[in-house]
Write a structure and sequence with these properties.
Aspartate Aminotransferase, domain 1, Kynureninase (chains A, B), 13 strands, EC 3.7.1.3 (chains A, B), pyridine nucleotide biosynthesis (chains A, B), homodimer
Chain lengths: 397, 397
């Protein structure tokens, strides 16, 4: 049994704010502030270069990777952290493509987060071997899997609608067609139970600054199934992925196992924040988290639909088909979201008309869900989105 | 005139330590601890997702890039920070190779830092188009430049010996042969005056955790000469390098200018430390820094050579041919360095026999240089390196 009142107390949330944007950037775990301060003063400041061994910085990407691995059903030694999600997707995709040299199609869906598609495009351009990125509607993915597909690259949970792919089923279909899979877990890790090993996933990548609450710019992670690790050639063959980084050999030899997916010097301060954020997850039962996420999401949908007839549910109505976010469509969604944020309820907006609300049971409860729906109801009833002040778009939205 | 007593006071160095390893990891600027703490509590904690605009996180890679640009003679708008040096070298090299499609040789020297060579190897393997990485001795580079060379990829200052290439001369030679240059400034930025624009450099990359003192795992930077920016195709085409990242378009369109070399979400906590570290550089005159670096290096060489006949200078004797480090060869260098570190003088060791000492005038003065040489003299005279305790090699050295 997970005590969600207890986990709520571990976050430093500003007074009067209802934070439904943890699917974009998770809030500050109080312990992270102390952990980062210690890392700066007692490790960097006091140990200087000695911190790489003495404070364990060098081993942290693997250690933290294993801790994330437990949250996404990965085998020990199959996850390592570092870089950004874009880079980790590129690494996984490059390795997977090389393992299917006779095939030319990367299959994805049109709702995938753009950076995954962009990185695939960049890789295809660099390779210059006639690979093709094919995107179809999410519901058409399974039918499109065929003998020309080298890699099926999907984000499990859609960043706009929260629509969830069936990882086990699509992975099976890919394997039956002789393809490999690259799963993007940006909106899965810490949001829903994930079982990479059980699903037979080949490669995966994810970020830690959303539901895992590791802070702005926190490092990404990459998963390579143990059966593929020896064959996965790192295209981004950096020194920390070398078998003996400190031998400074002139030629690259990939490290053992997942370590070869490391590239350069890991971000030590960000890893300190990640470490503190992961401590909160130690006591969390993922099934209990999921049950609570579904209950809160159902409550939010019911409350909003009862109060806001102009908002149309953009997320699947069946909770089994959703991640841990709820989205609504509204033509004036940008301005409505600004009005809502001005009243202390923080969600976000995705073009052209999606109002997104992340549901993170670690720090959001029923009272906040009800109150957020009430305030959204007021915004809609009073047509606050019609205020010109809310229509000025910021650079980053 | 730069007041080096004043800059020394801006660093939090442990009592009793003489730190000659800033060429590996710079020490903590006191203000960085406060700046990072503010970033964690007042930005991440209080502003949450609003920090991307409100605290300027999104604009920081370009802003900090320009501040670094001033230290390395780059034009405004030609430097951006992010990722690691390995990734930035890969980006620069991939873009440069595409601009010389009819040539197949990447020329480097055998003393280059391995990750540059490894990343080139990985890129060549991914491209699969018969490119070749040719490494020659540092002094043979100029003669090897010829019509088959697509890219000359060099680290300006050798990480082991401190030997410095003539950037302007080699860049000119490369251009005369129709090749492009990629300069690694890992041991140059903040160590010596660099004039990328004056030298006509094409691409460059560097790290910020050495002489710039931005902390363990601080982000790297990349330079693209303004004349190449429009033609430089990003192989690592991440969403934050897109012309309109928040339009979430399905296809990649590279951003204007240097922004296209951004990839994923920047490391906000590390950027806060970098910002504070760069504040120290605002008042520093690079010519004064260089004069003091040379004076301190000459003093260290003279003092060590007077006391330690068994140590052989590994760095060039002519200061014009050195960066800001001094290295000595000694067969038992590993153990001797451990003995030295145990006595509060921190340098480091690079296989097979190099004892390295970084000379950073911002926080090292004549007294410390004399005292370090004295203690090294004792270590050598008393054969302290013969103690078995100093021969046990740590995982990271």
């Amino acid at each position: 049994m997970t005590d969600f009142a207890a986990t709520r107390a571990l976050f430093d949330l500003p007074e009067g704010v209802i934070y439904l944007d943890g699917n974009s950037l998770g809030p500050l775990p109080g312990a992270a502030a102390d952990r980062v301060a210690r890392c700066v003063r007692e490790e960097w400041g006091a140990m200087l270069i000695g911190g790489w061994n003495g404070a364990g910085w060098m081993a942290q990407p693997g250690r933290l990777g294993d801790r994330i691995g437990r949250l996404v059903g990965a085998e020990p030694g199959s996850v390592v952290i570092g870089d950004t999600l874009s880079i980790k997707v590129y690494q996984a995709l490059a390795a997977a493509l090389e393992m299917r040299p006779d095939r030319r199609v990367i299959l994805s869906d049109s709702g995938n987060f753009p950076t995954d598609l962009y990185m695939a495009e960049g890789l295809i351009g660099a390779l210059g071997r006639g690979h093709e990125l094919v995107t179809v509607a999410p519901e058409a993915v399974e039918d499109r899997i065929g003998p020309d597909v080298a890699v099926l690259m999907l984000t499990e949970v859609d960043y706009r609608t929260g629509r969830r792919h069936d990882m086990a089923r699509l992975t099976r279909a890919a394997h039956e067609a002789g393809a490999l899979t690259v799963w993007d877990l940006a909106h899965s890790a810490g949001a829903i139970p994930v079982d990479l090993a059980g699903a037979g996933a080949d490669f995966a990548a994810g970020c830690t600054y959303k539901y895992l609450n590791a802070g702005p710019g926190a490092p990404a992670f990459v998963y390579v199934a143990p059966r593929h690790q020896a064959a996965a050639r790192p295209a981004l063959s950096g020194w920390l992925g070398h078998a003996a980084p400190f031998a400074f050999e002139p030629a690259y030899r990939p490290g053992e196992g997942i370590a070869r997916m490391r590239v350069g010097t890991p971000p030590v301060l960000q890893m300190a924040a990640l470490e503190a954020a992961l401590d909160i997850w130690e006591g969390v039962d993922m099934a209990a988290l999921r049950a609570r996420s579904v209950a809160l999401s159902e409550l939010f949908i019911a409350e909003v639909e009862a109060r806001c007839p102009d908002l149309a549910l953009a997320s699947p109505r069946d909770p089994d088909l959703r991640g841990s976010q709820v989205s609504f469509r509204f033509a004036e969604g940008y301005a409505a979201m600004q009005a809502l944020i001005a009243r202390g309820v923080i969600g976000d907006f995705r073009a052209p008309d999606i109002m997104r609300f992340g549901i993170a049971p670690l720090y959001i409860g029923e009272d906040e869900i009800r109150r957020a729906a009430e305030i959204l109801g007021q915004v809609m009833e009073d047509r606050l989105w019609d205020d010109p002040a809310y229509r000025i778009r910021a650079a980053v939205t």
